[in-house]
Fold:
Amino acid sequence: MQGSNNLPLFSGLKVEASDNVFLENLHSTRNLETTYYVTDMTQASDFYWIRESGLQVNIGILNVNVIPEYEDVDHESDNKYMLGNPNNSEDKNKFRKIVNNYCR
Structure:
């Protein structure tokens, strides 16, 4: 059902626009979707979505990290402390498995 000035009327709620109020009916606005193929992390892009209401949305994409880059760092190990614990707990065994399977 339409109210005056072709503004939507919902369950007794009348929505009025003025010069300082932005009005957009989200029930009838189409979804904006863009597929963007990124080839490397130095790639940047800038584009606009023009909404049916006239709102212009500026979209900027930069510093895309699709695949993280890892670097080796110097680190003094905590292994001596963790494995030197006199308590022979399950945590100690889990830690040992992590060190053996995932650490250099």
Observations:
- Helices lie at 79-83, 90-102.
- The radius of gyration is 28 Å.
- The longest strand covers residues 45-50.
